[in-house]
Specification:
Elements lengths: L1 E8 L8 E8 L4 E5 L6 H8 L7 E6 L2 E2 L9 H4 L2 E4 L3 H4 L6 H11 L6 H11 L8 H10 L1 E3 L2 E2 L8 E5 L7 H18 L2 E6 L2 H7 L2 E4 H6 L1
Parallel strand pairs: 3-10, 3-11, 6-9, 9-10
Antiparallel strand pairs: 1-2, 1-4, 4-5, 7-8
Bound molecules: adenosine-5'-triphosphate (ATP).
């Protein structure tokens, strides 16, 4: 269970963008969070993935409250999350090859020996035919990591996926391929998903249930 309990967060303690928000994602469940641009969805997604420290409230991961954030998060909790941000081009270091992008999270967490097998498997999963096109790079960023030290969606087999406007900049066929890749991974691993966005049609089709930002903040 991923529990967000009464979270208040933002960039100025006197004027937080997320106020007293609570949301629960069950094991293996996919929850879509809908809301207008600028309401605080990305901020909440970053808090949920332990990337942004809230001012108040708790993130509880499988019964255990998070006590550290970003690099201070416990490794077991940090690696429980795979995160896909809305700007994949900024998430992938352009100096790395596609293979390095996929292998880096494993090396960074002392599991480099698994890299060759995982690279082969993930390249197949996300449909990288050895090309270096922007779409292929987007898919490899999704498969690997958002920053070299931050293990991403698939490499470390996370239990929770946080997707923040994952498909906002993609065409329809790449969107469909990515959603399929996420769902294949979830079917295989039992991972839960929090997908944040403003595409109601996509999230309602994709997720077990959707909640609107207003419902979270009305209470
Ligand atoms: N790093 C930051 N520093 C200061 N303010 C920020 C920062 N990031 C976001 N904000 C502000 O916080 C508010 C919420 O932003 P956030 O990105 O969480 O919203 P969002 O719902 O995800 O929007 P979008 O759908 O446009 O991404 C906005 O007013 C934004 O300008």
């Amino acid at each position: 269970m991923l529990e967000l309990r009464s979270l208040t967060a933002g960039y100025d303690r006197r004027d937080p963008v997320v106020r007293e928000v609570s949301l629960t994602v069950g094991p293996g469940e996919s929850v879509g969070l809908l809301g207008p641009s600028g309401c605080g969805k990305s901020t909440l997604a970053r808090v949920a993935a332990l990337l942004h420290r809230p001012d108040r409230g708790q993130v509880v991961i499988d019964g255990e409250p998070a006590r550290g954030w970003r690099h201070r998060a416990r490794r077991a909790q940090r690696t429980a999350f795979g995160v896909v941000f809305q700007q994949p081009r900024l998430s992938a270091d352009p100096r790395l090859t596609l293979t390095q992008l996929i292998a880096e999270p494993l090396r960074a967490t002392g599991r480099g020996a698994e890299a060759p097998d995982r690279v082969r498997e993930l390249a197949r999963t996300v449909g990288l035919g050895g090309t270096c096109s922007p779409a292929a790079r987007t898919r490899s960023a999704t498969a690997s990591s958002n920053a070299p030290a931050w293990p991403g969606p698939w490499s470390l087999r996370p239990r929770w996926l946080i997707c923040d406007e994952m498909t906002a900049m993609l065409d329809a066929s790449t969107t469909a391929a990515l959603v399929t890749a996420v769902e294949d991974y979830r079917a295989d691993s039992g991972a839960g998903l929090l997908a944040v966005g403003h595409d109601k049609v996509l999230l309602e089709r994709w997720c077990d249930r959707t909640v609107h930002w207003d419902e979270l903040t009305r209470a």
